[in-house]
Amino acid sequence: MEAEAFAKANLSLRVRAPDSSGRHPLLSLAQSIDWADHLMLERAAADAFTLSGLTVPADDTNLAWRALEAVRRAAPRPLPAALALDKGIPVAAGLGGGSADAAATLVLASRLFCLPDAGRDALAPGLGADVPFCLQGGTALMEGYGERLTALPPLGGFWLAVVVPPFEIATAAAYRRWDDLGGPQGPAVAGRDLPPILRPEDPLVNDLVPAALSLVPELGDWLADLQRLWGREVLMSGSGPALFAFFAAANEAEEAAAAVSGARATQACRPVPRGWQVPSGTLT
Ligand code: ATP
Predict the structure, then answer these.
(1) Alpha-carbon distance 29 to 27, whole Å?
(2) What pLDDT does 281 receive?
(3) Is 8 a catalytic residue?
Protein backbone atom coordinates (compact mmCIF):
# COMPACT_ATOMS: atom_id res chain seq x y z
CA MET A 1 0.00 0.00 0.00
CA GLU A 2 1.20 3.50 -0.70
CA ALA A 3 0.56 7.10 0.30
CA GLU A 4 1.59 10.62 -0.50
CA ALA A 5 2.60 12.71 2.52
CA PHE A 6 1.98 16.43 2.12
CA ALA A 7 4.16 19.24 3.49
CA LYS A 8 2.67 21.93 5.71
CA ALA A 9 3.08 25.68 5.64
CA ASN A 10 2.61 27.72 8.78
CA LEU A 11 0.67 30.67 7.37
CA SER A 12 0.98 32.19 10.83
CA LEU A 13 2.95 31.08 13.92
CA ARG A 14 2.73 32.76 17.32
CA VAL A 15 5.08 31.41 19.99
CA ARG A 16 4.51 31.73 23.73
CA ALA A 17 7.11 31.68 26.52
CA PRO A 18 8.14 28.17 27.55
CA ASP A 19 6.15 26.57 30.37
CA SER A 20 7.53 24.56 33.30
CA SER A 21 8.22 21.61 30.96
CA GLY A 22 10.46 23.89 28.84
CA ARG A 23 8.19 23.51 25.83
CA HIS A 24 6.74 26.47 23.94
CA PRO A 25 2.97 26.63 23.53
CA LEU A 26 2.09 27.90 20.07
CA LEU A 27 -0.78 29.21 18.04
CA SER A 28 -0.49 28.49 14.35
CA LEU A 29 -2.65 28.67 11.26
CA ALA A 30 -1.38 25.60 9.42
CA GLN A 31 -2.10 24.54 5.86
CA SER A 32 -1.28 21.34 3.96
CA ILE A 33 0.32 22.02 0.57
CA ASP A 34 0.90 19.69 -2.37
CA TRP A 35 4.69 19.27 -2.00
CA ALA A 36 4.89 15.57 -1.24
CA ASP A 37 6.95 12.58 -0.16
CA HIS A 38 5.92 9.11 -1.33
CA LEU A 39 5.72 6.11 0.99
CA MET A 40 5.18 2.40 0.37
CA LEU A 41 4.58 -0.18 3.08
CA GLU A 42 4.21 -3.95 2.60
CA ARG A 43 4.40 -7.07 4.69
CA ALA A 44 7.81 -8.73 4.28
CA ALA A 45 9.81 -11.71 5.50
CA ALA A 46 12.15 -9.34 7.37
CA ASP A 47 12.16 -5.63 8.23
CA ALA A 48 13.55 -3.36 5.53
CA PHE A 49 13.74 0.43 5.13
CA THR A 50 14.75 1.94 1.81
CA LEU A 51 15.19 5.60 0.95
CA SER A 52 15.34 7.47 -2.33
CA GLY A 53 15.27 11.13 -3.31
CA LEU A 54 16.64 13.62 -0.77
CA THR A 55 18.95 12.41 1.99
CA VAL A 56 17.59 11.75 5.48
CA PRO A 57 18.72 9.23 8.13
CA ALA A 58 17.92 5.69 6.96
CA ASP A 59 17.84 4.25 10.47
CA ASP A 60 15.51 3.98 13.44
CA THR A 61 15.73 7.75 14.07
CA ASN A 62 13.79 8.39 10.85
CA LEU A 63 10.34 9.68 11.74
CA ALA A 64 8.66 7.37 9.23
CA TRP A 65 10.35 4.34 10.76
CA ARG A 66 9.57 5.59 14.27
CA ALA A 67 5.90 5.84 13.30
CA LEU A 68 5.95 2.26 11.99
CA GLU A 69 7.54 1.03 15.23
CA ALA A 70 5.01 2.96 17.32
CA VAL A 71 2.11 1.29 15.49
CA ARG A 72 3.70 -2.14 15.81
CA ARG A 73 4.15 -1.71 19.56
CA ALA A 74 0.45 -0.84 19.89
CA ALA A 75 -0.97 -3.25 17.31
CA PRO A 76 -2.52 -6.66 17.89
CA ARG A 77 -0.61 -8.23 14.94
CA PRO A 78 2.94 -6.82 14.73
CA LEU A 79 4.83 -8.43 11.83
CA PRO A 80 7.94 -7.62 9.76
CA ALA A 81 7.43 -4.97 7.11
CA ALA A 82 9.23 -3.22 4.26
CA LEU A 83 8.95 0.57 4.22
CA ALA A 84 10.13 2.67 1.27
CA LEU A 85 10.35 6.46 1.46
CA ASP A 86 10.90 8.62 -1.62
CA LYS A 87 11.82 12.01 -0.18
CA GLY A 88 10.86 15.13 -2.10
CA ILE A 89 10.04 17.67 0.65
CA PRO A 90 13.17 19.69 1.51
CA VAL A 91 14.65 18.66 4.87
CA ALA A 92 14.95 20.93 7.92
CA ALA A 93 13.17 23.65 5.96
CA GLY A 94 10.14 24.41 8.15
CA LEU A 95 7.86 22.42 5.85
CA GLY A 96 7.23 19.57 8.28
CA GLY A 97 8.45 16.83 5.95
CA GLY A 98 9.41 14.40 8.70
CA SER A 99 6.08 14.94 10.43
CA ALA A 100 4.23 14.37 7.15
CA ASP A 101 6.10 11.07 6.70
CA ALA A 102 5.25 10.03 10.25
CA ALA A 103 1.56 10.82 9.76
CA ALA A 104 1.30 8.97 6.44
CA THR A 105 3.16 5.99 7.91
CA LEU A 106 0.77 5.95 10.87
CA VAL A 107 -2.08 5.67 8.34
CA LEU A 108 -0.47 2.87 6.32
CA ALA A 109 0.88 0.90 9.28
CA SER A 110 -2.34 1.07 11.26
CA ARG A 111 -4.16 -0.47 8.29
CA LEU A 112 -1.48 -3.12 7.77
CA PHE A 113 -1.38 -4.09 11.44
CA CYS A 114 -5.09 -3.66 12.20
CA LEU A 115 -4.76 -0.82 14.70
CA PRO A 116 -8.02 1.15 15.04
CA ASP A 117 -7.97 4.85 14.09
CA ALA A 118 -8.35 5.97 17.72
CA GLY A 119 -5.20 4.03 18.68
CA ARG A 120 -3.38 5.43 15.65
CA ASP A 121 -4.37 9.03 16.43
CA ALA A 122 -3.18 8.67 20.04
CA LEU A 123 0.35 7.91 18.78
CA ALA A 124 0.69 11.13 16.74
CA PRO A 125 1.61 13.72 19.45
CA GLY A 126 4.43 11.51 20.77
CA LEU A 127 6.10 11.54 17.36
CA GLY A 128 6.31 15.32 16.99
CA ALA A 129 4.43 18.59 17.39
CA ASP A 130 3.39 18.72 13.71
CA VAL A 131 2.33 15.07 13.41
CA PRO A 132 -1.27 15.51 14.68
CA PHE A 133 -1.75 18.31 12.16
CA CYS A 134 -0.25 16.28 9.30
CA LEU A 135 -2.57 13.40 10.20
CA GLN A 136 -5.63 15.64 10.15
CA GLY A 137 -4.35 17.87 7.34
CA GLY A 138 -6.12 20.61 5.40
CA THR A 139 -6.46 23.93 7.19
CA ALA A 140 -6.38 24.07 10.99
CA LEU A 141 -5.59 26.18 13.99
CA MET A 142 -2.87 24.45 16.02
CA GLU A 143 -2.64 25.20 19.73
CA GLY A 144 -0.85 23.86 22.78
CA TYR A 145 2.13 21.87 21.56
CA GLY A 146 0.42 21.15 18.26
CA GLU A 147 -1.90 18.55 19.75
CA ARG A 148 -4.98 20.83 20.00
CA LEU A 149 -6.40 21.21 16.52
CA THR A 150 -9.41 23.10 15.29
CA ALA A 151 -10.27 22.17 11.70
CA LEU A 152 -11.14 25.21 9.58
CA PRO A 153 -12.98 25.38 6.25
CA PRO A 154 -10.62 24.57 3.35
CA LEU A 155 -8.71 27.55 1.98
CA GLY A 156 -8.43 28.15 -1.74
CA GLY A 157 -8.25 30.81 -4.40
CA PHE A 158 -4.50 31.27 -4.03
CA TRP A 159 -1.21 29.55 -4.78
CA LEU A 160 2.07 29.72 -2.92
CA ALA A 161 5.48 30.20 -4.45
CA VAL A 162 7.79 28.46 -1.96
CA VAL A 163 11.55 28.99 -1.89
CA VAL A 164 13.97 27.08 0.32
CA PRO A 165 17.25 29.02 0.68
CA PRO A 166 20.46 26.97 0.56
CA PHE A 167 20.87 26.34 4.30
CA GLU A 168 19.06 24.42 7.03
CA ILE A 169 17.66 25.64 10.34
CA ALA A 170 17.13 23.08 13.10
CA THR A 171 13.80 23.67 14.82
CA ALA A 172 15.21 23.17 18.33
CA ALA A 173 17.98 25.73 17.68
CA ALA A 174 15.41 28.29 16.51
CA TYR A 175 13.35 27.94 19.70
CA ARG A 176 16.51 28.18 21.86
CA ARG A 177 17.51 31.37 20.03
CA TRP A 178 13.97 32.75 20.44
CA ASP A 179 14.39 32.25 24.22
CA ASP A 180 17.86 33.87 24.17
CA LEU A 181 16.40 36.89 22.34
CA GLY A 182 13.77 37.30 25.05
CA GLY A 183 10.79 35.93 23.12
CA PRO A 184 10.42 38.52 20.33
CA GLN A 185 7.36 38.95 18.14
CA GLY A 186 7.82 38.40 14.43
CA PRO A 187 6.97 40.75 11.57
CA ALA A 188 3.26 41.01 10.74
CA VAL A 189 1.67 40.89 7.29
CA ALA A 190 -1.55 42.88 7.26
CA GLY A 191 -4.82 41.61 5.79
CA ARG A 192 -4.72 44.12 2.90
CA ASP A 193 -1.61 42.31 1.57
CA LEU A 194 -3.24 38.87 1.73
CA PRO A 195 -5.50 36.90 -0.64
CA PRO A 196 -9.17 37.77 0.02
CA ILE A 197 -9.91 34.49 1.80
CA LEU A 198 -7.10 35.17 4.30
CA ARG A 199 -7.98 38.79 5.10
CA PRO A 200 -10.03 37.84 8.18
CA GLU A 201 -6.84 36.22 9.58
CA ASP A 202 -5.15 39.66 9.65
CA PRO A 203 -2.33 39.88 10.54
CA LEU A 204 -0.24 36.80 9.70
CA VAL A 205 2.85 36.67 11.91
CA ASN A 206 5.78 34.32 12.38
CA ASP A 207 7.44 34.87 15.76
CA LEU A 208 10.40 32.65 14.82
CA VAL A 209 11.60 35.06 12.11
CA PRO A 210 13.86 37.08 14.48
CA ALA A 211 15.42 33.84 15.79
CA ALA A 212 15.96 32.47 12.28
CA LEU A 213 17.53 35.78 11.19
CA SER A 214 19.80 35.73 14.23
CA LEU A 215 20.90 32.15 13.48
CA VAL A 216 21.45 32.73 9.75
CA PRO A 217 21.72 36.46 8.91
CA GLU A 218 21.82 35.56 5.20
CA LEU A 219 18.10 34.78 5.52
CA GLY A 220 17.49 38.54 5.68
CA ASP A 221 18.99 38.95 2.20
CA TRP A 222 16.71 36.20 0.88
CA LEU A 223 13.67 37.87 2.43
CA ALA A 224 14.54 41.29 1.02
CA ASP A 225 15.48 39.94 -2.42
CA LEU A 226 12.26 37.91 -2.76
CA GLN A 227 10.15 40.84 -1.59
CA ARG A 228 11.76 42.98 -4.29
CA LEU A 229 11.59 40.30 -6.99
CA TRP A 230 7.96 39.37 -6.31
CA GLY A 231 6.74 42.84 -5.31
CA ARG A 232 4.82 41.55 -2.31
CA GLU A 233 5.13 40.45 1.30
CA VAL A 234 7.14 37.28 1.94
CA LEU A 235 6.46 35.01 4.91
CA MET A 236 8.44 32.19 6.56
CA SER A 237 7.06 28.74 7.40
CA GLY A 238 7.83 27.15 10.78
CA SER A 239 11.39 27.76 11.92
CA GLY A 240 12.42 28.35 8.31
CA PRO A 241 14.22 28.78 6.15
CA ALA A 242 11.35 28.07 3.70
CA LEU A 243 9.90 31.39 2.48
CA PHE A 244 6.68 31.88 0.56
CA ALA A 245 4.29 34.44 -0.89
CA PHE A 246 0.73 34.28 -2.14
CA PHE A 247 -0.25 34.41 -5.81
CA ALA A 248 -3.70 34.44 -7.40
CA ALA A 249 -3.03 31.85 -10.11
CA ALA A 250 -0.93 28.73 -10.68
CA ASN A 251 1.05 30.23 -13.58
CA GLU A 252 1.93 33.33 -11.50
CA ALA A 253 3.25 31.17 -8.66
CA GLU A 254 5.13 28.94 -11.13
CA GLU A 255 6.76 31.95 -12.80
CA ALA A 256 7.63 33.46 -9.42
CA ALA A 257 9.24 30.22 -8.23
CA ALA A 258 11.10 29.74 -11.53
CA ALA A 259 12.53 33.28 -11.37
CA VAL A 260 14.55 32.47 -8.21
CA SER A 261 18.12 31.24 -8.55
CA GLY A 262 20.53 29.84 -5.99
CA ALA A 263 17.84 28.26 -3.81
CA ARG A 264 17.98 24.72 -2.42
CA ALA A 265 14.53 24.15 -3.92
CA THR A 266 11.62 26.14 -5.33
CA GLN A 267 8.05 25.03 -5.99
CA ALA A 268 4.60 26.42 -6.79
CA CYS A 269 2.19 24.81 -4.34
CA ARG A 270 -1.55 24.81 -3.87
CA PRO A 271 -3.35 24.33 -0.57
CA VAL A 272 -4.76 20.80 -0.25
CA PRO A 273 -7.58 19.68 2.06
CA ARG A 274 -5.66 16.78 3.65
CA GLY A 275 -2.26 15.83 5.01
CA TRP A 276 -1.90 12.55 3.15
CA GLN A 277 -3.47 10.78 0.22
CA VAL A 278 -3.67 7.17 -0.88
CA PRO A 279 -4.30 6.09 -4.48
CA SER A 280 -8.03 5.35 -4.61
CA GLY A 281 -8.77 1.77 -3.75
CA THR A 282 -5.55 0.96 -1.84
CA LEU A 283 -7.09 1.52 1.59
CA THR A 284 -10.63 0.73 2.50
P1 ATP B 1 9.18 21.29 11.27
O2 ATP B 1 8.71 22.42 10.45
O3 ATP B 1 8.11 20.29 11.61
O4 ATP B 1 10.01 21.66 12.44
P5 ATP B 1 11.26 20.73 9.33
O6 ATP B 1 10.61 20.75 7.99
O7 ATP B 1 12.00 21.95 9.73
O8 ATP B 1 10.15 20.37 10.39
P9 ATP B 1 12.15 18.06 8.80
O10 ATP B 1 12.36 18.08 7.33
O11 ATP B 1 10.96 17.35 9.31
O12 ATP B 1 12.23 19.53 9.41
O13 ATP B 1 13.49 17.44 9.43
C14 ATP B 1 13.93 17.73 10.70
C15 ATP B 1 15.01 16.75 11.12
O16 ATP B 1 14.42 15.45 11.26
C17 ATP B 1 16.13 16.61 10.11
O18 ATP B 1 17.33 16.96 10.75
C19 ATP B 1 16.14 15.16 9.69
O20 ATP B 1 17.42 14.60 9.67
C21 ATP B 1 15.25 14.44 10.73
N22 ATP B 1 14.36 13.44 10.11
C23 ATP B 1 14.05 12.24 10.60
N24 ATP B 1 13.19 11.60 9.80
C25 ATP B 1 12.92 12.41 8.77
C26 ATP B 1 12.09 12.29 7.62
N27 ATP B 1 11.37 11.19 7.38
N28 ATP B 1 12.06 13.33 6.79
C29 ATP B 1 12.78 14.44 7.04
N30 ATP B 1 13.58 14.61 8.10
C31 ATP B 1 13.66 13.59 8.97
Answers:
(1) 7
(2) 62
(3) yes
